[in-house]
From TrEMBL:
InterPro entries attached to this UniProt entry: SusD-like_2, TPR-like_helical_dom_sf
Swiss-Prot/TrEMBL keywords: Lipoprotein, Signal
Organism: Hymenobacter aquaticus
Pfam families in alphabetical order: SusD-like_2
Protein name per the record: SusD/RagB family nutrient-binding outer membrane lipoprotein
Signal peptide: 1-18
Amino acid sequence: MKKYILFLGLALSGAALTSCEKFLDVNTDPNNPITSAPNFLLPGIISQGFQQQMFTALTTTYISQYAVRKTLASSTDQFILTNGNSTNTFNYAFFYSGGNVPTMVAAAEQEKSPYYIGAGKIILAMDLAHATDMLGDLPYSEAFKGAENYTPKYDPQEQIYATVQSLLDEGIALMKTPATENTRPLYISVPSPSGDILYRGDTDKWIRFANALKARQLNHLSKKTSRYDPQQILQLISASFRNAADDAQIQYQVAVAPLAGTTNIFGVTRANFGTATFSNNIIKYLNGTVAGAAFPGVTDPRLPIMLAGSSSGSDPGIGIPPTSNLLNGVADFYNGWYARDLGIFEVITFHELKFIEAEAAFKAGDKTRALTAYKAGIRAHMTKIGVGGTFANPNVTFPTITPAQIDAYLASSAVAQTEAQLTIKNIMEQKYIAMFLNPESWTDLRRYDFDPAIYPNLKYPVGAPAALGNQWPRRMLPGATEVMYNPQAVAALGASAPDYITKPLWWDMP
C-alpha cells in the first residue's frame, strides 16, 4: 500500500500568502519572503485539502451512523448541528488549501511550470466538490479575490458542479504537458521533500486521480435522469485507479516540533472520539451472531480490524455509561484500524471506485460487469485493511485477512453470487462497510433517501429536534466564519430556518 507523508506543519500550509506594499526595495528582508516557489506551496495545498475532509468526518461519522455518543450531549448523532460543525469544511477549502492555489498558479505561470498549475486545479476541484456536497451553494465566481471582495456571492450548486468538472479537465490537460516544458520538477526530494507529496511527481497518477473525482461527482447525479450517464461514468472509471497503489490518501505522522496536529483525526492523541462507540448499525453488518445481524451466520473477517471485535454498541440518542465499551483503557472506538494514531486518511480509493463501477454498470444494464466490480470492491477493501501488524497508542495487534478468508466471505450468503441475485442493496451495503468513516457515505445515504429497504439498520435518533419533522439531514449549516463575515450571502440561503439542514441539495432532487 502506497504511503504518503503528511506535511501539515509546513510553514506555508496554514495561511494564504498576501503581498505587501514595498516602500523601498532596500527594505525587503530576504529572511521573510513575501512570495514562494510553487514547490513550497503545493504540499500545504494538498495536505490542507485532505484535512478539510478529515474535519468534516468529525460530524458525518455520526450522521452516517458509524459511531454514536456514549454520553448524550445534544449533538451530531441526534442531528443537532451548529455552524461550528461546518467551519473547517468551508475554511480549509477557501483559505488554507484553495486560498493558496491562485498564489501558486501565479508563481508557476511566471516560471513556466504547468504541472503545478494542473495539480492546483485538481486539488481546488477536490476542495470545491467536497464543500458543495456537504454545504450546497458556494462562492466561486467572486471568490479568491482577497481584499477586493470579502463578501462574495454564492453560486448555485449546479454551477459549482460544472466548475469542478472544468477544473478537473484543465488539470488533466496540464498534467499531459511534456516534462521538458516544465521548468521545475513536480516532486523534489533534496534537500527535503517538496512539491507533490501525494504522488511524488507521477503525473499519470494525477490524471487517474482527476478521472476518479470526475466519476464520483457524476455518479452523484443518480437522481437527475436527464443528466445521469452511467456509460460516461464507466469510461471514467476505466481511466482512473488501476489498484490500491493509486489511492489518494495521506499518511499520518508523529508530531515532531514544529509540526503539530499530524496524528489521526480519529486517534487517541487528537481525542475527538473519547465519548464515542460504534453504532449498532455498523456492528450488524459485520457481526453475524448478534440479534438483527444483516448477514446471519456470517462473521465478517473485517470485524476485529475495523471494530476491534466489538459485539455491542448503541443507537443514536440512547447513550450508555461513559465507562462502557472500554478496551485497553480507552474508548473501544480507538482500538480500530481506522483510529490508529499513525494510520491513513483516504479521500478516494480503488475500492470506492469499484463500487461506483458496480452501481453504474448495474444501472446501465450490464449485470456481468456490475457483479465483477462489486466483488472486486469487497476484495480490494479486505486486502487493504487485512495486512495485520501491531500499532501503538493504544497497543493493538490486528489480525491478517488471508486470501482463503476473503474467498470464503465472497462465497458466503453475505455476498450476491449471481447476476440474478445482485441488487442495488447488495452494492450499497458493501460500499457502506468499505467506506467506513468517510464523509462520502453520507452522500450515498442521501442519494438513496436513507431507504430502509437498502439500509435497514439505520435508526432515527431519539432526541432529534422536533423542527426536523423526522427528516434526515441533507446538508450542513454554513460555516461560522461566513455567518460572521458574509452574513448577507448566508441570509440569502435561508439558513436560519429551523429545518434548513433537511433541505435537499441540487443533486439530491430529481
